[in-house]
Amino acid sequence: MNSKKQIIMIAAAGEDNSLGKDNDLLWHLPDDFKRFKRLTYGHKMIMGRKTFESFPKPLPNRIHIIVTRDPDYKVDHDDCLVVHSLKEALDLIKNEKAYIIGGGEIYKQGEQYADAIELTRVHSTFEADTFFPSIDNQIWKVIAEEYHPKDEKHKYDFTYLTYGRKN
């Protein structure tokens, strides 16, 4: 077991860094959903309230740490913790791996704390109201990439990009 705290931002974003519109995804990529599940399964996930509310129900075998400014916000589910700042969320991560899963504002705040970024780059542009922050190539470098062409289940081609911090 890795005994060091590791914070990973995970997202799927269009070429223009589009993430979503009206609190919904802009595409349906089943293989990306499978990858998200495989990477986050068994780990803590930090998210904003709107991201959490976009799920039909909490995702199985993951602790959901929900960041909201609403002091009265409550979630009645064992796998959900409500906090009121990103710092408070990060304080709940001990010597373990955790994922920042959105939305746009949480990604902006979380980038400075992230050790890695798992980005699915969807090769198209979209009309969106939420965006992933631009990745600064002075700070981040691609350490792995895997291209996935569009097919009968995937309307867009996309690339899995793993970024690590430059030293």
UniProtKB/TrEMBL annotation:
It comes from the Bacteria. The keyword Oxidoreductase applies. Its EC number is 1.5.1.3. Keywords: NADP, One-carbon metabolism, Oxidoreductase. PROSITE patterns: DHFR_2. Pathway: Cofactor biosynthesis; tetrahydrofolate biosynthesis; 5,6,7,8-tetrahydrofolate from 7,8-dihydrofolate: step 1/1. Residues 6-165 form the DHFR domain. It catalyses: (6S)-5,6,7,8-tetrahydrofolate + NADP(+) = 7,8-dihydrofolate + NADPH + H(+). Key enzyme in folate metabolism. Catalyzes an essential reaction for de novo glycine and purine synthesis, and for DNA precursor synthesis. Belongs to the dihydrofolate reductase family. This is Dihydrofolate reductase. It comes from Maribacter litopenaei.
